[in-house]
Amino acid sequence: MKEYKTKIPVKLGSIDRDSLLHFMMWRNQPSIMKRTRQWKLLTMEDQEIWYDSIVGAKWPESIMFTIEASLVENTTDKTSSFFTHQFKNKDKSEVNLSWQGVGVAGLCYIDYIARSAELSIYIGSKSYQRKGIGTATVQLLKEWAFNKMNLRKIWAEVYDHVEPVHEFVKANGFKEVGRLPDTVFKDGDYQNSIYYAYYDTEYMHEKAMGKV
Ligand SMILES: CC(C)(COP(=O)(O)OP(=O)(O)OC[C@H]1O[C@@H](n2cnc3c(N)ncnc32)[C@H](O)[C@@H]1OP(=O)(O)O)[C@@H](O)C(=O)NCCC(=O)NCCS
User: Fold this and answer.
1) Predicted TM-score (pTM) of this structure
2) Is 155 near ligand 1, meaning CB less than 6 Å away?
3) What do you get for the CA distance between the two ends of the chain, in Å?
4) Which structural domains are found in the chain, ordered by start?
5) pLDDT tens figures, 192-211
6) d(CA 170, CA 173)
């Protein structure tokens, strides 16, 4: 797994109804829509239905989190993050840590019998991409999948035209396991799907080697 010189602290937070507007704005960006299964603009009603389907269920089909990052630099892009929690030093002198919600991630299509789930992740603003936040998030999702939920496999479906995501999943230890042609119609053309998987055995191995 990729090692970053300056690691941005990342944690997974719970999602709540108040976050839905922000998620909707992120997901409706054309740059994100072309990489996901979404084909129409989401409304707040869609968001509410989605939220109600995942909260409260004992065995939900998806577990979703906000990606919270502790960032030092500020951005002028007001839509890039949706909250900031600041923590003071013990003597309350100055702020030493600030967490911002910068994206959404989780495990979807959870199959509790086959013990598998699909990786879902997006960082809402370009200003927070390519800084290692996605990699740190996948690491935390692996911990959830294998240490807390006793899953066996995390899989990912990536359309063949989104090269950066292929690089990203491979950089995070996922291996190609299959291809299906013409799974989706985007930008006037059919796209193929490439499937990737990462197994619990690989996680245990990487852990034993001190890599994760
Ligand atoms: C894809 C995404 C989750 C990656 O998260 P990230 O924090 O930007 O990625 P990281 O900084 O952890 O990158 C890890 C490695 O992945 C690969 N990678 C990530 N983004 C890349 C890009 N745009 N181009 C090429 N390689 C990329 C690189 O190997 C990178 O290592 P490097 O920066 O040292 O070269 C994020 O960019 C994102 O949310 N994009 C928009 C939504 C999306 O595409 N979601 C996935 C839908 S299936």
Assistant:
1) 0.90
2) no
3) 7
4) 10-155 (3.40.630.30)
5) 999 999 999 999 999 999 87
6) 5
